Amino acid sequence: KYLIMGKGGEAIVKTSFLKKSKKPVVKYTWDEVKKHITPEDAWMVYHNKVYDVSNWFQHPGGSVIFTHAGDDMTDIFTAFHAPGSEAMIKRFYIGDLVKESMEHKNEEQFAFEQGYRDLRAKLVMMGMFKSNPLYYVYKCSSNMMMWATAVAMVAFSDSVYVHIASACLLGLFWQQCGWLAHDFLHHQVFQKRKYGDLCGIFWGNLM
């Protein structure tokens, strides 16, 4: 049995209950979801679950999140977020999507999306998304060597040409710092986000 409720009049409450919260599972139609398309009123769908991220301007990736307001963010979320990021959006969960209400997607579209997800799953199984720790040890070490060399060139030489070369080397060092901070802060290196955050702060802010 279902009960109609919600501000759009199209939300459906199923009479089953969640195990932990003991609250009724609210179900929303696609027509209801696509009404919420502004940063101040933004709903999104992830794996047929509905999330209300209205006014979440503190999103780590910035306001780009609102470009998918009122839409299905399943694949774009997976593409741009590290494993474990799902835990951050649990607090925004408001209910489930009535899958049958997605009339704008035909069987061909569903097949395409499933094919993409199957392909990604195979690549994950092959280890294509795993970073090589030794590569980042090498990159961090070589970057510090560039910094040390640039400092030594200024400290032990009065030549203008050596100082110019040092400046170029230091510029290359900072450029590489940016890429290292990018990789660490996008959590491509560590499974635990706090380690990536600390390394990102070191390379991006302190160096």
Produce the secondary structure layout:
Blueprint: E1 2-5, E2 11-17, E3 24-28, H1 30-33, E4 37-38, E5 41-46, E6 49-52, E7 71-72, H2 74-80, H3 86-89, E8 93-97, H4 107-125, H5 133-155, H6 160-185, H7 193-206
Parallel strand pairs: 3-8, 5-7
Antiparallel strand pairs: 1-2, 2-3, 4-5, 5-6, 6-8
Helix pairs in contact: 5-6, 6-7
Domain Cytochrome b5 heme-binding: 25-98
InterPro entries: Cyt_B5-like_heme/steroid-bd (IPR001199), Cyt_B5-like_heme/steroid_sf (IPR036400), Fatty_acid_desaturase (IPR012171)
GO molecular function: oxidoreductase activity, acting on paired donors, with oxidation of a pair of donors resulting in the reduction of molecular oxygen to two molecules of water
Question: Descriptors for this entry?
Answer:
elongated; Flavocytochrome B2, Chain A, domain 1; alpha+beta; 2 domains
Structure explained in plain terms:
It is a single chain. The protein is an alpha+beta fold and 207 residues long. The protein has 2 domains: 27-126, Flavocytochrome B2, Chain A, domain 1; 133-206, no CATH class. Helices cover 47% and strands 17% of the residues. It has 7 helices and 8 strands. The protein has helices at residues 30-33, 74-80, 86-89, 107-125, 133-155, 160-185, 193-206; strands spanning 2-5, 11-17, 24-28, 37-38, 41-46, 49-52, 71-72, 93-97. Strands 1, 2, 3, 4, 5, 6, 7 and 8 form an 8-stranded mixed β-sheet that branches. α5 (133-155) runs antiparallel to α6 and α6 runs antiparallel to α7 (193-206). The protein starts with a strand and ends with a helix.
